[in-house]
## 1
Amino acid sequence: MISKIVVKDARFPLTGGAGSDAIHQNPVYSYTVACLYDDKGNCGTGLAFTLGAGNELVCAAARFYGEKLVGKELTEVMASFGDWFKQRSDEQQFRWLGPHKGVVHLALAAVTNACYDLWAKQQQVPLWKLLLDLTPEQVVNTLDLSYLEEVLPREEAVRMLTEMQASRASREGVLRTGYAAYDTSAGWFNYSDDQLEANCKRALDNGFRALKLKVGAKDPDTDIRRAHIVRNTVGDEIKVMVDANQQWNLPQAIAIGKKLAAINPYWIEEPTHPDDILAHKTLADALNPVKLALGEHVPNKVIFKNYLQTGSAGFIQVDAVRVGGVSEFITVSLLCKKFGVPVVPHVGDMGQLHQHLVLFNHIGMGHEALFLEHIPHLRKHFVHPALITDGFYKTPETPGSSCDLLSLNTFPG
Amino acid sequence: MISKIVVKDARFPLTGGAGSDAIHQNPVYSYTVACLYDDKGNCGTGLAFTLGAGNELVCAAARFYGEKLVGKELTEVMASFGDWFKQRSDEQQFRWLGPHKGVVHLALAAVTNACYDLWAKQQQVPLWKLLLDLTPEQVVNTLDLSYLEEVLPREEAVRMLTEMQASRASREGVLRTGYAAYDTSAGWFNYSDDQLEANCKRALDNGFRALKLKVGAKDPDTDIRRAHIVRNTVGDEIKVMVDANQQWNLPQAIAIGKKLAAINPYWIEEPTHPDDILAHKTLADALNPVKLALGEHVPNKVIFKNYLQTGSAGFIQVDAVRVGGVSEFITVSLLCKKFGVPVVPHVGDMGQLHQHLVLFNHIGMGHEALFLEHIPHLRKHFVHPALITDGFYKTPETPGSSCDLLSLNTFPG
C-alpha cells in the first residue's frame, strides 16, 4: 500500500557555459522529485525536469496528484494505469491549467514516473525488464489512448506489441552490447570555438560516433562557422546534429537550414516554435533531404500525433520528464512506430530513465536502436549514474528506473 | 512610476449546476487578480481565469512577472509593450514551463491585463477608447508578432489597421446601440430538461437572439434530445450554439456532429481536444456546412495561426484571460482578420474586459460585430458589472477595463 508521497525541489546550478543554448543562456538543471513510499519500506522516485525558476510550481502540482495515490495498492493502480492517468490528467479544475501541458503535466510526469519506479523496485527488477515482462495487454492497460482513436485504437496497439514478440531474441543483443550514446555536451552555445574543437576531439576519444552542436546565433555566420569547425574536426563518418532550440522563425529556419546542409547534419533540431506544426511541415519540405528532429518541448500525445500526421519529423524526441511520464512516453513511441518514425528521446533526466525506455522501445516495440542522448553534468548527483563506456550506455541492472538522487534531504519540500 | 504589484487569489463557488459542462462538472470560477499600483494612487487590475484548484500556482507565477514592472514608467513600457511581452514570455528559466502556455502564460495574461487597465485609468478613458485612440504603429508596438513572420509581418499589421481608419465612422454606431450579447447560462450541462426549456424562454424574454447548449453527454441521444428541446423552444430565427467542451474524440465528433446538424446549430464548439489541429480540419470537412468554433483552450498565437492556416475554424474564440492578455488577443484578432475568420471571444472574464476588446476589433480592425458571450454568475462581484439590456452590452464609460472586483481584501495573497 502506498503510505505517503513527498515532493522535493532539487536544483543543480551549472558552470562554465554547460547547458547553454540559443534560448536558455543560464539554465539551472532542476528536478521535481516525487518520492512515493509504500508500507514495505520501498521508495519510488519520479522526476520532472525544469530549468530552475518555477520548479516550485511543478512541485506543488505534483503534491496535488500524488496525494490521490495514498492508501492505494500500487499493483492495482498499475493494472489499469491508463485509466488512472486519464482521470488525473482530466482532474476537472486542474485541467483548465493545461490541458495536458505546462506545469500540471510536468507534475503528472513526476508522479507517474514515481509509480513506475516503485513498481519496478517492488518487483526487484530494472524498469526495462519489468516493461518487457508485461504482456501486450498489460502494457496497453498502462496507456491512455484517448484522442488517438482514429490512428491508434486499443486493439491495434495490442497487435503491434504482440507482433513484435516472436522476433524479440533478435533484438536482445543490445542488452549485452549496450545502447549507443551521442554526446550533447561537446557543443553548448556559450563554449568558445577552441573549447568546441577540443570537446569534439574528446568526444571521439571517448568513443562517441555522434554529437551535437548548439546553433541559433544572432549572426547566422557564427552557426555556419562553428558547424564547419565540428565537421572538420570529427570527419565525415561521425553523425553531427545541430540544435537551434526554437530560436528561428520560419523564414530564418529555411535560410539558415539550407546553409547548414553543407555540413551534412544528421538532423536539425527544434528549428522553430514547438507549437508550430505547419511551419515544421513547410520547413521539412524546404530542407528535404535534411531531416528535422523535434519533441523536447512537445507536451502530449495529441500534438505528437499531429506532427506525425504531417510527416514533418524525421526523428521524434519525446521526453518522459516532459510528457506525462513513462506511460505517455510509451504511447508516443507506439504512435511513432505506427508512423515509421524513430524515437530518439531528449533526456531531461540525463538518460537515467530513458536508458530503460529505449531498451523497451527496441526490444519490445521493434524500434530501431539508434542512439540515446548523453549529458554528463549531473552524474555525481545520482545514486546509480548511467554508465557510458566507449560511447555505449551499459544496461542498468539495479531494480527501478535509476532515478534516485543522492542527498535528497538537503532540498526543501 | 509603478510602485508595487499585489496578486490575489479570488474564488467564487457556483451553485445549482451553473458553469457545468461535459468535462467540468463542478467548476469554481476563480481569478488570478494582478493589482498594479502607480505612485499617483491608481490601481490597475488584470485577470486570468481558472476553475479553482491550482489558481494559487498562477498567482505565484504572476508575482514573478509582476515584480519585473516595479520601478518602471508604465507609459514607457506600453510604448513598446510587444518587446516587454516577448522578454517576459521568453524568461529563459520560466519558459521551460510552457513555452507560452499553461500556468505561466495564464500568469502573464493577468499581469499584461493589469498593465492595460492601469494605462487606461491613468489616461482616464475606458480601454476601448484608449485602444481606438492609438495610431496603427502604436497598436502594433504593443504586440509581439514573433513566429508569425510568414503570415503577418509588422508592416502588414500596420497597413491592415491603417486601411480601416477611413471607414471607422461607419462602424462607430455600435457605441450607441451596444454590442449584441448571447446567453451561455441557458443550457449548462447539469440543468434538467425543464430548467433548460424555462431558461430558453427567459433568454428570449430578456432579448437574447442567440444562446448556447452544453452537449457531450455519455449517451449522445441525450444531446440530440436536448438540442431539439432548445430549437423547438426558441424557434428557427434564434441562433443556437452547441458546445462539447472537448468531450468527443474524432470519430464521435463526426457521428454526433452529423446528428446535431438537424437542429441547424450556428456552430459546434470545442468538439474535441484543443491541441488537435488536424482532427478539427478533418471534422470541419466532414460536417461542412456546419461550422466549428474553437479557441477557449488555445493558449497562444502560434497555435491559432495553425488553426487558421488549416481553415478548420469558422469562429475563433480567443480569450484574453487565457492567451497572454490584451496584447496577444489583439495579435490573434489581427491574424483572424487576415484569414477572414470572425472573433467571438470566450469570456473567462465574464465579458468585463472583452466588451472593450470587441469594440476595438469592430471599429478599429474592421471585424464584423457579431455578438459577445454573456455569463451572469459573477456580476455581483465586480465594481462595474457589464450592463446587458435587451440582449446588448451597454458601452462601458468608466476609465479602465472594467475588471475591478469588490471585496478584494477578503482574498489571500
## 2
Amino acid sequence: ADVDAGKAKAAVCAACHGANGISVIPDYPNLAGQKVKYLQSAIKAYRDGERKNPIMSPMAAGLTDTDVENIAAYFASLPAGG
Amino acid sequence: ADVDAGKAKAAVCAACHGANGISVIPDYPNLAGQKVKYLQSAIKAYRDGERKNPIMSPMAAGLTDTDVENIAAYFASLPAGG
C-alpha cells in the first residue's frame, strides 16, 4: 500500500478523525494505530452499504479498493494515541 | 461509569480484542484508548441490530445500557497502543 497516497486521499477525513488520526469529535472513532485489515473492512462496509451512516457512506462511496488500502495503511501507520 | 465493573464484564472480549485492548486478530479493532461515546454507539449498534456480525451480535445481545457504559469506559481507559 502507498501510505503517502493514502494520506493525500485521507485529507478530508481529518475534519472528523483528526489530522493525527485522533478524533476531534467524541462520537467518532480514533483511527491512529488501528488494525489495517479492520480499517479496510470498516471503510468497505460503508462503501458497500453493509454499514449505513449519513456522513461515512457518501465519504466512502467513490473509493477504489486501492484507495481503501492506502487510506487504511495511512491511519494504521499513525502512532496510536496521537 | 464503573471501569472495574466494565473490566469484569469485558473479560470475554479479551479473547479477540486482547487483554490490553490491542486486538490479537488483524480483522478485529483495537479498542484501547478509543473514544467512549464511539465505543458505546458501536456496542449498541451490535446489540440493537444496526450492525450485524455473527460474533459481535450475540456478544452484545444481553448487555444493559449500564454494561455498555462500563465496558466502553473500561476500554477507553486503557492506554492507546497498549
